[in-house]
Amino acid sequence: MTSEQPLPQEPTLTIAQVVERTGLSHDTLRYYEKAGLIQRVGRTTGNQRRYEAADLAWLEFLIRLRETGMSIADMQRFAELRARGDATVPDRLAMLREHRADLADRIRALRRNAASLDDKIDHYVRLLDQPGSDELS
Amino acid sequence: MTSEQPLPQEPTLTIAQVVERTGLSHDTLRYYEKAGLIQRVGRTTGNQRRYEAADLAWLEFLIRLRETGMSIADMQRFAELRARGDATVPDRLAMLREHRADLADRIRALRRNAASLDDKIDHYVRLLDQPGSDELS
DNA sequence: GCTTGACCTGGAGCGCACTCCAGGTTCTAC
DNA sequence: GTAGAACCTGGAGTGCGCTCCAGGTCAAGC
Q1: Where are the beta strands (DSSP E) in B40-90?
Q2: Fewer beta carbons within 10 Å, N or C terminal of chain A?
Q3: What is the torsional sign of CA B103, B96, B62, A130?
Q4: pLDDT digit string (tens) for A71-123?
Q5: Taking CB atoms and an 8 Å cut-off, how many pairs form between chains A and B?
Q6: A118 vs chain B: nearest CA distance in angstroms?
């Protein structure tokens, strides 16, 4: 048999590796941690951060919340609920559903606005096709 | 025949009326004007602003640019081109097309993110349906 | 004519989400 | 063991897009 090997510790990531994988900056990672968006990350004996896979997954979820327009304050609320455990799943679900509905509204509004940009673009194209007419807008 | 009437001056709007119609605040309207986003608005002899229909239409266009994520700096560039007249139509068209393409990208990204929020929501729903399993995220 | 509310200006202040800095500690490679 | 890169902290600074303020002027109704 093979000799007993040390438990293959789940590999951890340095902050530089997390920067590379998430696109967040060092400062933003520290800011998110200070703000309570991520629970205290593991440390080496020398006090340097070592991120685990679960931290990375959570960060990626936070990034999605941010990219869909959630404020830091709301992310803090969400993170706090998460930290309180399973009992808060209904609250988290409610928050997420509300955020999802807001997002749907915003996407609809963007599409409407996109359509009117298209109209404006068409207007300019026509101006270029038949020049000479006084421009109105 | 009817007696000669004074030219029915195109009715103008006070700033309060524009606030009401656009949803922009007094301060934002003045800020936009100072920033050159709208060309100097007409004034009464007493120096109070009187907006014309064309001003309102332009403001509504600016609002669409803003709502689709254009920065004030880019709106300034656009407004400046507009102020320079017909010769800049090609530049304006190019700006608008680029902005439109960015917008399409952002809408696509939002839809992708929305889909992954939906996954997360489903995950929570399943957690609630079959409680007891240790929660992972 | 007077009151009251709407409007004017320049400039300071604010909230958000980072970003930068100084000064020190730790890690890695030689 | 040492050099240099990576990392640590608290706190100050930044850019954006407004928002507020003080101290005045103007306009409309009585």
Answers
A1: 42-43, 49-50
A2: N
A3: negative
A4: 999 999 999 999 999 999 999 999 999 999 999 999 999 999 999 999 999 99
A5: 100
A6: 8
